[in-house]
Amino acid sequence: MSKTTPPSPQRSTIFGRGSYAESLRIGEILRKETVGGALLVAAAVIALIWANSPASDSYFALRDLKVGYEPWHLELSLGAWAADGLLAIFFFLVGLELKREFVAGDLRQLNKSIVPVAAAAGGVIVPALIYVVINLASPETLRGWAIPTATDIAFAVAVLAIIGSHLPSALRIFLLTLAVVDDLIAITIIAFFYTSDLQVTPLLLALVPLALYAFLAHKFRYFFGLKAPAAWLILLPIGVVTWALVHASGIHATVAGVLLGFAVPVLRSQAAGGPDAGPGLAEIFEHRFRPISAGIAVPIFAFFSAGVAVGGWEGLGSALVDPVALGIIAGLVLGKPIGIMGTTWLLTKMSRAELDKSFKWIDVFGVALLAGIGFTVSLLVAELSFGQGSLHDDHAKVGILAASLLAALLATLVLRTRNRHYRAEEEAERVDADQDGIPDVYQDRT
To answer: CB-based contacts of 22: which residues, under 8 Å, 6+ apart?
Structure first.
């Protein structure tokens, strides 16, 4: 009597399709970020041209113009207002998006969140190590080790739009999650490693409006009604007070943005779109503030931060051979793909998982190259590391711009070769044979 061989257990896959609702939500976010990315690039180009034109003095005079109320420690230059104030809106959305992903999104499932989160960590650690190795002989420049750790999602999706890439939703979600997680890691680094002259009293006082903000945010339906379209008008002043106190404490004020984002409640029933759920506060805030972040805050920050007087070809050459610029370029262009690819590959081997049949490792490599576009947060960390307008800061900006451009070009070369395959996958994701409003590929899990 012959024995029947038991079927081998099915291997888990990574980069498989998530839910259709999640795909739609991420797609909407990335469409807004595409517009924001175009504005960001335009603002950076204008700043570079102005800073290297005969009228360059007017650019730096504008950037360094101080406004605000000094007794509250708020007499800041316009460049500092952009970095400390406007970027707090960007980081508020980072905190909000990450919380939504892990509470109501597909990433609340460990098997779906572990890969992008671990890959993001690898994409932070390896670039930082590469920068440290290159700058090991120069202690004064080691402070910039965190510059090549972040991914600029707006810049990255703008590149995808420019090259006409039909990157499938699974890879777009992976890219967005990577960017959000390493932005969170970057803001944590800023809070712990770039805080000087900590003032305990304002920091403790900041906990009072933060707690009030969190309480009202979680009870907003009780206080402001079922749909609460104007709840943000009540909570916004409390958030501003929290931001001002965190700023006075010596901790970079963008940290307040993340904390406020985490304080906003996210309910799974609201994310699922139940008939009586109405828009949740997370949805209200995301709708109100993402256009402000993508269309105003980040482009203005890029305008004030990207302007660097290169000094002609000779100045550009001297900047590019500076260990600061070399460490940044190597970290973003080499370290990012090595860290992301290496971590993802290692996880597949350790868990005996395999790539979804729709993808190949070259696809992961293309996304990892795209993640080497580190612009907004990298510029912020460069200023915190060396001080705005210093020689090392200028060289760091040259390195960031050069690395982001090089990463965009390399990612374009890789992803364009796979565009025909991506287009076929995109068309498959649109097929709805039973006409129930949900594409068939999101229903067929066999």
So the answer is: 105, 106, 173
Tokens of 189: 């680094």
pLDDT digits (tens, 9 = 90+) for 348-384: 888 777 777 777 888 889 999 999 998 888 888 998 8
Whether residue 93 contacts residue 292, with contact meaning beta carbons closer than 8 Å, is answered with no
Q: Which residues are within 8 A (CB) of 201 and not within 5 positions of it... i.e. 6 or more apart?
A: none
Phi, then psi, of 77 in degrees rounded to 5? -70, 160
**DSSP classification of residue 438:** S
Distance between CA atoms of residues 340 and 156, nearest Å: 16
**Of the ranges 4-8, 69-73, 210-214, 224-228, which is most confident?**
210-214
Which amino acid is located at 149 in the chain?
T
The closest alpha carbon to 152, from 339, 405, 427, belongs to 405
* Residues ≥6 apart with Cβ < 8 Å to 270: 104, 277, 278, 279, 280, 282, 283
What is the share, in percent, of the chain residues with pLDDT greater than 70?
Answer: 81
Tell me the angle at which helices 254-263 and 231-249 cross, rounded to the nearest 10 degrees: 140
Spell out the alpha helix ranges (H) of 219-335.
Answer: 220-224, 231-249, 254-263, 268-272, 281-292, 298-306, 312-320, 323-330
**Type of residue numbered 199:** Q
pLDDT over 60 at 412, yes or no: yes
Would you say residue 74 has pLDDT above 90?
Answer: no
CA 207 to CA 242: how far, in whole Å?
Answer: 8
255, 325, 327, 372, 391 from 316: Cα distances, Å: 33, 11, 16, 21, 12
Residue range 385-399, pLDDT digits in tens: 888 778 888 899 999
> Which residues sit opposite 13 in a β-bridge?
354
Q: Are 44 and 30 in contact (CB under 8 A)?
A: no
Question: Regarding predicted confidence, which is higher, 434 or 416?
Answer: 416
Q: Please, what are the domains in the chain?
A: 15-195+290-415 (1.20.1530.10)
Cα Rg of the chain (Å, integer)? 23
User: 216 — phi, psi (to 5°)?
Assistant: -65, -35
Does residue 188 carry a pLDDT above 70?
yes
63-67, long-range: CB < 8 A, 24+ apart: 63/304, 63/307, 64/389
DSSP secondary structure string, 346-386? HHHHHHT-EE-TT--HHHHHHHHHHTT---HHHHHHHHHHH
Length of the chain: 446
